[in-house]
Amino acid sequence: MLVSRLQKFLTAPEDHRFSPRMIFWLTLSLVFSISFAIPPLQKAFSGEYLIMDDARQHLFWMQRFVDPDLFPNDLIADFYQSITPSGVSGFYHLMANLGINPLLLNKILPLFLGLLTTLFCFGICIELLPVPTVGFIGSLLLNQNLWLHGELTTAVSSGFAYPAFLSFLYFLLRRSPLGVGICMAIMGNIYSPLMLVASGVLILRLIQWEKGKLQFSNNRQDYIISAVGLGVATLVIIPYFFSTSEYGPTISAQEAKTMPEFLDKGRTAFFYSNRGLNFWFKNSRSGLKISLNPPLVILGFFLPILFRFPRQFPLVEKISSKINILLYLILTSIGLFAIAHLLLFKLFLPSRYTSHSFRIILAISTAIFLIVVLDGIFQATLKQIIALASTVVFSFVLIFYPFFIWGKAFPRTAYTIGTDPAVYQFLQQQPKDTLTASLSLEADNLPIFSQRPVLVSWEHALPYQKGYYRQIKPRVLDLIFAQYSPNLDTVKQFIQKYGVDYFLIDQKAFSPEYMTENVWFKQWPDQGKQALSQLQGKQQPILLQSWNRCTIYQNQLYRLVKADCLIK
Question: According to the model, what pLDDT value does residue 384 have?
């Protein structure tokens, strides 16, 4: 009796969408999503100067929504504003107009992105196998993966992509042309790679395997849905073909292979010297980047095998034929991954077409696999103890694995912490066009925390767009030359050319070790050798000669040096 009740509660299909059992498992799914969001939320509000890494890179310019006079004529801010998807910037702008600061919004958004992701993932699972626990397990596995890797915590383009893409899949399964069209428009304006994946799915679903051969669908509704979705995608894409960017064109693969920026120690390392299989499978930019976290999702690969044993696993008979959408998603993702390699950098990075979709595929397929197998165990055994033990083991591994194995790494709360509020507060009191030049990694933090521009920073030195990078690279080279030059005229010309107001200099900047430790010199070793040669010359660099006299603030890590003091 106990086993039969447990079986009904855990593995029996549910005909009513709003039954108490369905509501219970959906509510539990949302509760887990909230519980995963709380630690990052607590961390985000534990200090004033905390920000997720991707948000630090893509969000700083949005402070213009609060104060339009910030970052005047700033190359870096203008560039990042131009590449931010209109849907993301529009949403942040709308919220800013309603009085919610972009930095505050960025901290609270992950909670709501997680809830939407959970809701639509649950709905997709129910469409494929109407067992509430499938929805719970699928959304739980997906949440565990996303919160481990901080995919939602960034609350920028990639964070918005998950609820948008899942909502597309849900409305596609529900056969809603309006829902599909709206979701395609949203994806196209927040994360275009997934809109292309969705477009591929809309095309492939028109080709079906029936009676031992491939043939086109004979369902008129299929064509209406695909036409609406592809039509919207076309309308979104067309403007890109006719628009021009002052920061283009995109770098070619041939050019990138010759640039240190794309090699092992470069800012956007892509062509590693020891590529091997990692290049195609593991590397974050070039590889498939299929995340197998938690490891339980490996079971999702074995779901097709269960269809060969319907007698042992009778619940497979209840799986909807719409499960083919996972196959379409696999084929489209891998196909676009290959095309992205062939047209390298024209469609951005190949991994963007597989990493997100495979997280969804494996979470859903694993959830279905586990419930079908559990139901098979219930069907096969007459001993209550075996069925109960299986349920306990499944539940324990599913729920508690992240906390025992990943420990404090889950959920991810790896916020970038500003190292010295005094510098940020000082710069905030300066005119809004105050420009700081620095080779330090701390320069990455200045735009977001001080709301003042920097000449260059490692985080913002993306080399994909030639029009942008041909302006950034000379700035870095000029800064290196000026920082280590013993010639006063060289330093003076640099300051006047770029309008530099302050130098932020690492305390170790004039040590030989710095020439091999600094990220810029790792990328350009020859520049490090040249700087070391200047440092070891007969005359000290001007900045070293004058930095005690011109330093207005210092701590154990760096000094803030007033530029005009150096040339007086």
Answer: 62
CATH number of the structural domain spanning residue 506: 3.40.50
Residue 192 and residue 169 share a domain: yes
Q: Is 454 left (phi over 0), alpha (psi -120 to 50) or beta?
A: beta
Residue 215, beta-bridge partner list: 208
The answer to whether 285 touches 278, Cβ cutoff 8 Å, is no
Helix runs in 157-298, H state only: 157-173, 177-188, 192-204, 220-242, 253-256, 276-281
**pTM of full prediction above 0.90:** yes
How far is Cα 348 from Cα 340, in angstroms, rounded to an integer?
7
Q: 14-66: per-residue pLDDT in tens?
A: 988 889 999 999 999 999 999 999 999 999 898 888 888 888 889 999 999 99
B/e letters for 106-139, b = 16+ CB within 10 Å, e = fewer, are bbebbbebbbbbbbbbbbbbbbbbbbbbbbbbbb
Pairing relation of β-strands 50-51 and 416-417? antiparallel
Bridge partners for 558 per DSSP: 506
User: Domain residues for 291?
Assistant: 2-243+275-409
Cα–Cα dist 62/56, whole Å: 11
Largest CA distance in the chain: 92
390 and 502: one domain?
Answer: no
Look up residue 454 and give its DSSP letter.
Answer: B
Token pair for residue 283?
């590397």
How far apart CA 317 and CA 321 sit, in angstroms, is 10
Q: What pLDDT shows up at residue 436?
A: 97
The letter for the amino acid at 30 is L
The residue assigned the tokens 């992701």 is: 117
Q: Which residues contact 289 (CB under 8 A, 6 or more apart)?
A: 281, 282, 283, 351, 354, 355
Tally the domains of the chain: 2
